[in-house]
Amino acid sequence: MAFTLRAAETRDASALNALERTCFGDNEDSFSPSQLKYLVTKANAQTRLIIDEDGALMGYGTLLFRRNEKKARLYSFCLHPDIRGQGLGQRLLLALEAVALTRGCDSIYLEVRADNRAAISLYRRMGYEVLHWMEDYYHDGCAAWKMIRSLGEGSSAAS
Q1: Which residue range or ranges hold the N-acetyltransferase domain (predicted)?
Q2: What pLDDT, in 10s, does the model give residues 102-150?
């Protein structure tokens, strides 16, 4: 199956909401439809989508930017369970790193659930390093790891 990556648009809000519910459930740590729409339309953010050949949304990642800061924050990263393990997470992450570089960022940081071994493994393979442990970070009490990756020379995003 072929997949394409593209920037999110306003028309993607309901598909983003459906994917968010599929991947994260309906809990206090997942985004509401209005939050997702804001991220795509008004926030100082960039969202990239993975679309399958039938036009279905299969993954997304959102970067947040702050004025006068050279670090981007990977705010959300989500792959439909049906496409995990096919290298698409790496492809999406590389696309987001390229976006951060074009915005003048020199690094990306993120928080990841301590029990999300697949995501932690992906981030480590992609060169993200652990900064510190964040106890009781998520609403359900799960801890998180804060991780960062330099986008300087020699990084895969810069090549």
Answers
A1: 3-152
A2: 999 999 999 999 999 999 999 999 999 999 999 998 888 999 999 999 9
Residue ranges of domains in the chain: 3-150
pTM: 0.88
Backbone angles phi, psi at 108, to 5 degrees: -130, 135
Name residue 73's beta-bridge partners: 64, 109
Report the candidate in 21, 26, 20 with the shortest Cα–Cα distance to residue 39. 20
Buried b (16+ CB within 10 A) or exposed e, 25-38: eeeeebbeeeebbe
The rounded distance, in Å, linking the Cα atoms of 114 and 135 is 9
128 contacts 143 by C-beta, under 8 angstroms: no
Dist. CA 103–CA 126, nearest whole Å: 20
Residues 59 and 88: beta-carbon distance below 8 Å? yes
Assign 72 to helix, strand or coil. strand
